[in-house]
Amino acid sequence: MKILIVDDDDIMLQLIVHQLKNLGEHDVITATNGKNAIRLVKEQQPDLIITDLLMPIASGTELVEYVREKLKVSAYIIVVSAMGLEHVQQEALDMGANRFMTKPFDLAQLLECIQEVNSISQAS
Q1: Is residue 22 part of a domain?
Q2: What's phi and psi for 3, nearest 5 deg?
Q3: What is the CATH number of the domain that holds 73?
Q4: pLDDT per residue over 7-26, tens digit each?
Q5: Most buried residue among 51, 81, 82, 112 by CB atoms closer than 10 A?
Q6: Are the C-beta atoms of 6 and 63 separated by less than 8 Å?
Q7: How many structural domains does the chain have?
Q8: Is residue 123 part of a domain?
Q9: Distance (Å, rounded) from C-alpha 76 to C-alpha 50?
């Protein structure tokens, strides 16, 4: 499964990448802002996008909206953010995210979610 991880926090980005590479079954690509992420979605067509909300140049919200509305990409999208307010979560889901996780999150929970998405994508 091809996974795009988008986060301007380099430590968070590397932590997730490291964990996914330990699983050894995913092609992982990264971006540190929404603009670069949009380019990678066009070029790489990931199966899963994991994105932060608050980032420079283009936010995670703009990324989700662009991916769903302009590109019409059906990749599974997980939004992760320290802004865990209910209206923020609902806005992300309304724009097309499939799941919202509040930072700090349990990395094992994220990996479990990724495995579920992988199982679904392999079944289809």
Answers
A1: yes
A2: -120, 130
A3: 3.40.50.2300
A4: 998 988 998 898 888 877 78
A5: 51
A6: yes
A7: 1
A8: no
A9: 8
